[in-house]
Amino acid sequence: MKRAFFVLFFLIPLSTMAGGFSRTLVVGSVGDDVVALQRILNSDPLTKVASTGPGSPGNETSYFGELTKRAVMSFQSKYAPETLFPAGVYKPTGVVGTFTRAKLNSLEKLPASSVPDSPLPQSVQSAVPPLVGAIAKPNTKDPLIMENFFATKSKPLLFNLSRYEAKQGQTVVVNGSGFLPTNNSVILSSSVRVENLSSIDGSTLSFTVPTTASNGTYNLHIQNKNGSTYDSSYGDFFTVADNPRGPPTITSVSTQTIDVADIGKPIVFYGDNFDSTNQILSSVGNISGVRSDGKKIEFSLSSFPEIKKLIDAVKYVNSADLYFFVVNKYGVTSTPQKVILKIK
Amino acid sequence: MKHFFIFLLCMGFALTPLTAYAQLGTGVGTSISFGGWVAYTIPCTCSFSLWVFFTPLYLRGLPAPIVGPLVYTPGISTLYPYYLIGVPTTWELGDYVPGVQACLIGVPPACVILPSIGLMSRVGTSAPGFPP
To answer: Which positions 65-84 of B are in contact with A (Cβ < 8 Å)?
Structure first.
């Protein structure tokens, strides 16, 4: 452990370049900032550019190639809540854009010996999480292959929609798994179908609400040669209407951090399409019946079932990240809202 | 909740090998060793997995313990004795694949991914009641 710390200390530069990372880096980029990027990536075994040769620790180069791109994707996966979620994406891109640069710049300043102030889950938002019913066993030799390990043999599954109310001609994105490269169908009813849809990643499918879909509610499902997502218990959850409402969205929060002593005080989410009553899903449990005027929703952390266990158990770090979603009849917030709980 | 845990426990038990022993991961490939103390667990109601929050959580390659969640999925994660996956106050040791998101919460068809550090590929547990 001490040896690892010693090596890590020397691999993390205390400062790399004046001003940090300031431009978007992609495959083909050349410069000192690429060298700095590779050094930061090589400081972590999970994001190392290469084990030997150009790009490996001590042999960083000024060229951003495919190996660097792959390492950036691992980096984005590790810090997904900071690098991907704020941009509204789940899959790592391999492009060092605004949010990835911000994280790199923050790591540049971080001394190796510091206790993590915000111990984020080192999470990668893989596009296709595993579910019961998946047939294909993951190929654990390649983390990027893991992203698609449900892809071609599993029955399709429906996770959520980009919107649950839409009008004719409006585009809706279906998020799920088991979608095939071609020949997926979105079915609203026996007479209202959108055929021959393609999915490039196995987990998203876009369709346009056909003009043949009358106003009303439907049990939307996806069908391909591997099966169907139809489940009668879902009921009719997709509405075609002339003036559709979008899903709930959180545009701002009353506080990004909250002290453990203040868990009884209200946190306010501001946004749109909150219903008169809502459910909040979170990483400390769920609460229901949360009232709203449509534009703001107020709750306190003390209401959540697991918050006390978290506070009682956390001793080794200064803070813990909490994630929240709002759910109502108009849908669910697409990306988690983070609030940092300051422990000490 | 209780029945959900019992269901998952039975699934894990049914899929374990006849002989088993805890192993330290070598870090080869994408599985990385971990060990940690379970503070609490969230059932992933859409994905039939468990989102297990550890504090502390030791990950191979990190110089200091952190806190955070890993996900256990029956049929994909291999479970070893004492099979008490996700039970608070147990210590758990195993390997995980970083970055794989395996926990969906909510009620279909409105499920969302609860972020986690990764997916347990194999895990063994202690008996409950140990301090962190």
So the answer is: 65-69, 73-76
